[in-house]
Amino acid sequence: MIRVTDSKMGDKGMKSSITKRSIVIGHHKTSVSLEDDFWNSLKEIARGRRITMSGLVAALDSKRQHGNLSSAIRLFVLDFYRSQVCQHVVGPSLGMFEPDARRPPY
Predict the structure, then answer these.
(1) Is the pLDDT score of 28 beyond 80?
(2) CA neighbours within 13 Å on the CB side: how many for 55?
(3) Average pLDDT of span 5-30
(4) What is the rounded distance in angstroms from the CA atom of residue 82 to the CA atom of residue 94?
(5) What are the pLDDT digits (tens) for 45-103?
(6) HEC-encoded secondary structure of the chain
(7) What is the CA radius of gyration of the chain?
(8) Is residue 11 situated within a structural domain?
(9) Is the distance from CB of 59 to CB of 42 less than 8 angstroms?
(10) CB atoms within 10 A of CB 2
(11) Residue 6: partners with Cβ closer than 8 Å, 6 or more residues away
(12) How many domains are there within the chain?
């Protein structure tokens, strides 16, 4: 079960793009501070894998070796989308995503 409570973090009324969310994973309550884009991407990934957000966050929490859970989530999301891009890269990181028959291979 996952319960999420959102609260915008900011200083003197200034809103940040980071939202603090309280999460219950199993019987353990914790909080993560994430930008909305990372949170929404995490939801997309969970939906694509047909698992709950709670299950995905619990798996990330159990596998992290150091750092905080917020960082682990950011790195997981980054790695997920990076791996999708890498599947389409033809040459070394030169911005080439589609093969071009006129270009010599690198």
Answers:
(1) yes
(2) 7
(3) 70
(4) 14
(5) 999 999 998 899 999 999 988 889 999 999 999 999 998 888 776 555 555 444 444 44
(6) CCCCCEEECCCCCCCCCEEEEEEEECCEEEEEEEEHHHHHHHHHHHHHHCCCHHHHHHHHHHHCCCCCHHHHHHHHHHHHHHHHHHCCCCCCCCCCCCCCCCCCCC
(7) 18
(8) yes
(9) no
(10) 16
(11) 19, 20, 21
(12) 1
* Highest mean pLDDT of the ranges 27-36, 37-46, 77-86: 37-46
pLDDT for position 105 = 45
Structural domain range at position 74: 6-86
Report how far residue 28's alpha carbon sits from residue 85's, in angstroms, rounded to the nearest whole number.
Answer: 35
Domain of 60, CATH number, reads: 1.10.3990.20
Q: Both tokens of residue 92? A: 């070394």
